[in-house]
């Protein structure tokens, strides 16, 4: 570290907060070299070349799905899409560490975790197409639907984890959020509750360097993993573009949770290669040089380099994976045609567990409003048109 890496107060600058250092757990370098680590290696001892190839396949497929969904939004088929490009290792590595009975509480960018949990393409797209308030049944996939409110899922994960512990289960919960969410009250309150009650929860921060247009250096003057110290829980900082390091760190944290030792904060240092969402223009706040620097740390390229150095037929692997990725992308695109517009009055479904007069009064008012547009067409088409009008006003 050079003096230029610290500001006038001696605190860490954006450059120091984002570059690799001695505190960063890294098992595979950007050039594909495997680094031994006595603490973390035992946790990935089962990952042979075949398993590593499957992790690469996961990452390649979700990158292709992400690109296809972005294209669908640009073509007017989706209202919005939050790209995950660059964060594949952080999500696949942590997702593949989970047991089936562990529960995921995510934000809105965790499409790779949805892939790991078997979420169908139509279920993944419906929210972003505006045809459903949520995309899938959480209990069928062990994953809550995307949380748009920044950081709220950390509280949900903590409460779920505490409930699981009280019921005698050794299942864990895991909450995914970005670097900006660590400044939210909900996240810090979740830290307090989880640490106080030794909740079996893992807090997984994908530090992708930008909270929309605000750099991580504005969010924190120290590494985010160090925030765990003040709550009395361990914090670990891993190379979020290294799928093996992420897998090992998540397994360690999950084991700690299952043993009743409480929560862990993982800071996965990664990078959002695309925009915050398709409504964002990242060229307005970051440089081409920064983007080029992070391209050299690509999570997929380093796994390919390691596999090639280990004697794997890379050409054959890439050919097979590309075919699988193309099929997944085609299924995603085809799913658009299967997503029907909902009837307008379904907006009142699932708002409360039990009916109440307040909601019924709103439903009655909306029904009479819709009748103004009744031209003898089907309820579904009339409802869809009125729904679009109402949603436009709400926005």
TrEMBL record:
* InterPro entries, per the entry: Alpha-ketoacid_DH_E1_comp, DH_E1, PdhA/BkdA, THDP-binding
Q: Any idea which UniProt keywords this protein has?
A: Oxidoreductase, Pyruvate, Thiamine pyrophosphate
**SUPFAM superfamilies xref list:** Thiamin diphosphate-binding fold (THDP-binding) (SSF52518)
Does the record carry Oxidoreductase as a key word? yes
- What is an example of a GO molecular function annotated in this UniProt entry? magnesium ion binding
The keyword Transmembrane helix appears for this protein: no
Which terms does the UniProt entry file under GO BP?
Answer: branched-chain amino acid catabolic process
**Cofactor(s) required, per the database record:** thiamine diphosphate
Question: Which CDD domains does this one have?
Answer: TPP_E1_PDC_ADC_BCADC
Q: Tell me which Pfam families the record gives.
A: E1_dh (PF00676)
Annotated spans, Disordered:
372-395
* Residues covered by the Dehydrogenase E1 component domain: 57-312
> Which portions of the chain have biased composition (kind: Low complexity)?
381-395
Query: What is the name of this protein?
Result: Pyruvate dehydrogenase (Acetyl-transferring) E1 component subunit alpha
Native source species: Agromyces fucosus
